[in-house]
């Protein structure tokens, strides 16, 4: 799962305008500040790939990157801003559901979860939505360097228990740290395995 090339392709405000190429696609989403940009940079061995699209004003867009000329990495907007109106929340939800419901080439979403915070309703709701809609997804726990190994184990166990209240099966999950470069191999291997199927 080595990264030979990683390039920014395009940012879009509408799903309909996203690239038409039938290339396997993987989408990263999570609450703002979850560590999404850092994770994308860590996964791709690039210092500021995600920042290209992360500059102000670009954060509400669907950002496509092409990796190894063979799969799209999609950086979706962060959700859960505290200070947004109900109308803009509704609009945002529509925008996101449009993406997940219309994007044919999507192989898997990755929901990022900050390991420092107890399970957040907004993340659980989003996971619920993906599950109910039959959209394949994995969970990426971020900032694992913030906890000791035992505490990571406990956290993940609790999180899984939470999910098993609703679901019979657990999604694939990954423990990562961008600052300590943990989890790159696991995530890339999963991507490799699923896009060769
Ligand atoms: P985004 O808003 O989801 O794109 O998050 P960023 O990648 O910009 O990170 C948000 C904050 O979390 C920044 O202050 C990062 O330095 C910090 N951060 C991101 N990844 C990690 C990590 O793996 N470990 C630690 N300790 N901090 C992280």
From TrEMBL:
GO terms for biological process: division septum assembly. Pfam families: MMR_HSR1. Residues 22-197 form the EngB-type G domain. Its cofactor is Mg(2+). Keywords: Cell cycle, Cell division, GTP-binding, Magnesium, Metal-binding, Nucleotide-binding, Septation. One of its GO terms (molecular function) is GTP binding. InterPro entries: G_ENGB_dom (IPR030393), GTP-bd (IPR006073), GTP-bd_ribosome_bio_YsxC (IPR019987), P-loop_NTPase (IPR027417). Necessary for normal cell division and for the maintenance of normal septation. Belongs to the TRAFAC class TrmE-Era-EngA-EngB-Septin-like GTPase superfamily. EngB GTPase family. This is Probable GTP-binding protein EngB.
């Amino acid at each position: 799962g080595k990264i030979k090339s990683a390039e920014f392709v395009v940012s879009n405000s509408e799903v309909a305008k996203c690239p038409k190429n039938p290339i396997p696609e993987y989408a990263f989403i999570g609450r703002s500040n979850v560590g999404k940009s850092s994770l994308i940079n860590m996964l791709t061995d690039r210092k500021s790939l995600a920042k290209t699209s992360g500059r102000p004003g670009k954060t509400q867009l669907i950002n496509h990157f092409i990796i190894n000329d063979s799969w799209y990495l999609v950086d979706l907007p962060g959700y859960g801003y505290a200070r947004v109106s109900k109308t803009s929340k509704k609009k945002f939800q529509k925008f996101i559901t449009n993406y997940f419901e219309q994007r044919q080439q999507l192989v898997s979403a990755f929901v990022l979860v900050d390991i420092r915070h107890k399970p957040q309703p907004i993340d659980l709701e989003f996971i619920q939505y993906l599950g109910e809609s039959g959209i394949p997804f994995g969970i990426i726990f971020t900032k694992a360097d913030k906890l000791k190994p035992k505490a990571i184990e406990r956290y993940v166990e609790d999180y899984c228990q939470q999910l098993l209240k609703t679901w019979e099966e657990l999604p694939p999950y990954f423990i990562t740290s961008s600052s300590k470069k943990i989890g790159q191999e696991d995530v890339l291997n999963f991507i490799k395995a699923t896009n060769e199927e």
